[in-house]
Amino acid sequence: PLTHPPPPPPPPRHGVRRQRQMCIRDRRSEAEFEARRKCGQSFFDEAGKAANDEPGELPIEELKVGRFTVQQQTKLWAGTDMSCFLARSDIGTFAQAVVFDNTVLFRRELEILAKLEAQGSEDPQFHKLLYLRHVTFTEAGSPVECLVYENFPNMANTGAVNGERLRDVAHQLALALAQLHGLGMLHCDVRPKALCWSEDQNCVKLTRLSRVRDLQDSSVFEEAPYVGPYRAPELHCALSKMRVSESSDAFAFAVTLVELAAGPEKHLFNSMKSIMNFHYEVERGAAPSVYSAMAKISSRHLGIALQSLRFSPENRVTVRDFLKRELWRQL
After folding, report:
1. CB 94 within 8 A of CB 72
2. Do 154 and 77 touch, CB atoms closer than 8 A?
3. Contacts for 323 with CB less than 8 Å, ≥ 6 apart
4. Cβ distance 249 to 181 under 8 Å?
5. Pairing between strand 185-186 and 64-65?
6. Hey, is 29 helix, strand or coil?
7. Could you give the CA distance from residue 17 to residue 20 in angstroms, rounded to a whole number?
8. 275-311, pLDDT tens digit by residue?
9. Whole-prediction pTM value?
10. Are 173 and 195 in contact (CB under 8 A)?
11. Which helix (H) or strand (E) segment is 287 a member of?
């Protein structure tokens, strides 16, 4: 029997160039959606690790760093890429031994410490009062990369901080961050777990310097800066679009002060949505009920914190402005 050829395909609704553009746009949309999904998921993953992190065991039975022996049975705190143990010296004094699982972060921390020491050569006491002072570290090629610091309790383990103590903490933390900013660097990991406190010396010190980033560094982030609850709204985006500034540190600084005043286990933000919608909730007056940490602090403290928690980074009070206007005196 005779067969008829199949009918020709219908003409494309758009030209070839237009179809190619639409295809590229769709692929970009999918990539952007996936990046946002991962960024949102990382908020919960990192927050969970921050609250429930468990350090791993050391790869060797006994670790000796200088005159200190690491006490593997005494774990102080841990993070994704590092663990901290108590260390005991030959004469019986104690220190903190931070063991790194990431060589890049270990070398970066040493680099930043060297820069700060060089900056503090004219006034070494100023440097020692602001940053956790390192005592010794492992040599190159060691099977374990470890930094030994002076033994200061981690501030995340303290109770609520208020009154004169809060003013001292805010002032000293702002000084430490402002010095970094003056050197053209951002901390990128500001949070209570990055602070150590000595009750006897009435002194707070900034630590965890391995994620410090140069302001002039325009390279793409390999992973998002800051732990999720301390990450500013403009940084909840694809890694290729992230741009950090002094306002990024200021946002994390303000969140940290609120949480320290509210007490342990009182996180200001518990999701990316809560960060993105924060300014709308504040305008509606719903902040104290929606954000439980805010119900625990004074209205005066809240008013100061809100100046650095603004949605737009251009409108935030930076840490250097916080010092210049002596806002810490009003806490």
Report:
1. no
2. yes
3. 171, 174, 175, 178
4. yes
5. unpaired
6. helix
7. 5
8. 988 888 876 766 555 688 888 888 889 899 999 999 9
9. 0.82
10. yes
11. helix 287-290
